Amino acid sequence: MLELTEVVAGYGTTTVVHGISLDVGEGECSVLVGPNGHGKTTLLRAISGLIRVTSGSIRFDGAEITREKAEKLVERGLIHMPQGDLVFPDMTVEENLVLGAFAKRASRSARRRMEEVYDIFPRLLERRSQRARTLSGGERRMLAIGRALMGDGRLIMVDEPSLGLAPVIVDEVYAQLRRIVATGMTVLLVEENVSRAQTLADRIHLVENGAVVRSAAGSELLDEQALRETYLGVSE
């Protein structure tokens, strides 16, 4: 569904992503892991059209999208949930969800999608009339994911869903992410917490210094001693 070939991107004259090639199959959950500041978030921003790709190619569902604008990519069904709790604080939970369905493809099925989001995140249903600013950190993260799902996407990119959350809340968020993956949604996930990533990943891509240095099935990659020592702090 998603194919990257030698993608180079960055900010101004600073190159952050150095020729990354990878692919994400339909119905697959692929996870980007690696140290903070090594290009994972920048890569998602390049894929979703938020920053310019300097060179290389990005194809989505067979179509070249390297130079397409972000709003056109949403129409195609490529949805990006960025880091943090980027919700509209003075709008209600339900108003935030409705805004997630602004694209034509999503607006046609917005009511059905909202029911599905409430089924995945029943706490959002309980708080549907509350302003987003009154929610807890975990609830705001659920709302951000729910709003992304409202886009009726074919592929959803989720950036650091566990960032800044207490472990018990991370457990809850990941339990719901597993439900989303189980529906067959194609997912590209960025996660520094490798032990969390392994619970979802069909494939893991290790990103270091803006390049993919290793790709393998999740279980295979996490069995490698060097990776365990570097990113999990486990030595044997």
Automatic annotation (TrEMBL):
Record's keyword annotation contains Transcription: no
Pfam families: ABC_tran
CDD domains: ABC_TM1139_LivF_branched (cd03224)
Keywords: Amino-acid transport, ATP-binding, Nucleotide-binding, Transport
Highest taxon above the source species: Bacteria
Spans through the membrane: none
Species name: Leucobacter allii
UniProt cross-references to PROSITE patterns, sorted A to Z: ABC_TRANSPORTER_1, ABC_TRANSPORTER_2
Molecular function (Gene Ontology), one example: ATP binding
SUPFAM superfamilies on file: P-loop containing nucleoside triphosphate hydrolases
Name of this protein: ABC transporter ATP-binding protein
